[in-house]
Design brief:
It is built from 6 helices and 7 strands. It is α+β, with helices and mostly antiparallel strands. The chain has one domain: HIT-like (HIT family, subunit A, 2-Layer Sandwich). The longest helix has 22 residues. This is HIT domain-containing protein.
Length: 178
Amino acid sequence: MPDIEDSSTLAGVPDAFQRLWTPHRMVYIHGQGKPEGDHDCPFCTSPTKDDADGLVVARGEHAYVVMNLFPYSPGHLLVCPYRHVPDYTDLTADETRDVAELTQRAMRVLRRVSGPDGFNLGMNQGEVAGAGIAMHLHQHVVPRWGGDMNFLPVIGRTRALPQLLDDARRLLAAAWDE
């Protein structure tokens, strides 16, 4: 659990802000452990594990659905082709169809399980476009609720997520075949 530091204990002039320290996020921010090839790519290794360990929600013929390890909101899913390709134009017709169908299914399941008001769908193509792992294509399926983002991302550069990844994965995986 992150430590909350009273600003009056800091050097300098105290202000009205409390600090919510989340040092575990520095791994993501600095890109530590970013893959250097398909041998250590998390989107290549995740489906080789059992579903719970790999955070896999569902598997298709050419693509699969996995929980985002750094989610924007509870239930944030990624739809990834099994094949290690960086660009949407690199997908075969079958892979494109599987990614699209799994994305649609993910939206239906998320609606049934958690009732979001809407979704953000997207692919960040290349590091300059915001892709955290640019070498392996992945489609974001981000459930959204009215008022789901508060002051923390704006002021504290922190996200409050009320559901653990494994809890969300279990609920979504169980509902996938309903």
